Amino acid sequence: MITLLPKTNIDFVKKRFIFFTISGIVSLIGIISLATKGLDLGLDFTGGTLVQVKFEKPIEISAIRKALEASGMEAGIQTFTGENSYALKIKGAQQNVNEIADKMGAALKAIPGNSFTEEKRDFVGPVVGRDLSKKAIFAILLSMFGIIIYIAFRFSNPVWGAAGVVGILHDVFVTLTAMSLANREVDLVVVAAFLTIAGYSINDTIVIFDRMRENMRNFPKMPMGQLINMSINECLSRTIITTFTVFITVLILYLFGGTGINNFAFAMLIGTITGVYSTIFICSPIVYQWEHRPK
Fold this sequence. Notes:
Layout lengths: L15 H21 L3 E2 L1 H4 L1 E8 L5 H10 L5 E4 L5 E7 L5 H12 L7 E9 L5 H26 L2 H24 L3 E2 L1 H31 L5 H33 L5 H30 L4
Parallel strand pairs: 1-6
Antiparallel strand pairs: 2-4, 2-5, 3-4
């Protein structure tokens, strides 16, 4: 195994209440922010105006976006391969379609040396309808239950599965909190980031749980707290290498990936950090806390 750090002997279990408190405070901030500010839902959830335009000459998407932003509009832009046509989408109510489309047209006329024709204007309904939202929530709850069953079967203890699910919920909620505080738009691409974060989080948790199970076989008489600390310390180098690699990759996407994936990259940056945090400071200490609960 590749090692990045010298052998460590950090007592993570002893500091568990400090990190439980930190997570509690962040969660409280998230609840307040979501209750007062809410989320900036994207066009996928709210619906809006669609205007399709075709330019006389080839043009960069950045030039279109810059012209729209100069008029105070932020649009999703989709290009059509082999053509100079672009679909521009802006959030708004159905009764405001013509007003928004006219404003977009006026903004695009400011682009020098490239005329355009409007091919289509329409109202785009929300992609995520009420029925689809219910199905998505049901699928998420079912997947969480499946994770509990899987980890309980693999590690012969349902508490371990429940701790893994708590870690996933923690990571996704912290990321939601960051999106709310930063006024970041949440669309289907960001939802994909949440699912990626959930998968990354549970994978990291299972790695440490697997080491805990192995050490329980090798040292059956070792106290649980000592065994958890040893397992985390043994995996710490691997965890840092993996997290650092993912973080640098996502950071590059955030800095240079462009507007289209900026919110996705932002969510992944937060999720990468909180994913390793929850694995070390939340999931494993929960297992210890359950084992040492008053009986």
